[in-house]
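User: I'm putting together notes for a lab meeting next week and I want to include a structural view of one of the chains we've been expressing. I don't have a solved structure, so I'd like a prediction I can at least talk through. The sequence is below, exactly as it appears in our construct file.
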Amino acid sequence: MLAVNEACMNIIQHGYKQDESGEIILEIFKNSDEVLFRLTDFAAPVDKCDIKGREWEDIRPGGLGVHFICESMDDIKYLHLPDGAGNILEMTKKISKT
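Assistant: Thanks for the context. Below is the predicted structure for the 98-residue chain, given as structure tokens.
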């Protein structure tokens, strides 16, 4: 849930620039060995090369969400909506069968 929360906060802060009317769609898919979290927003398309957290050594509030997402998920994909009017973030977490 930490990764989903951090991703939503990044969409609100950076994608929608604090605009409260921005929409985020969360979809959750589960199969036998993993869970896929898909977040879709309708903000301006983001270049995935621009998505990075600040340095770990720079200790201050904020800016570590990308690190938390990368550390807690097994796979992350940054995609764009087909018409170029938004972004899709897919985060996959493997789950054990025990």
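A couple of points you could mention at the meeting. The longest strand covers residues 34-41. The chain has one domain: 2-18+25-94.

User: Perfect, that's what I needed.
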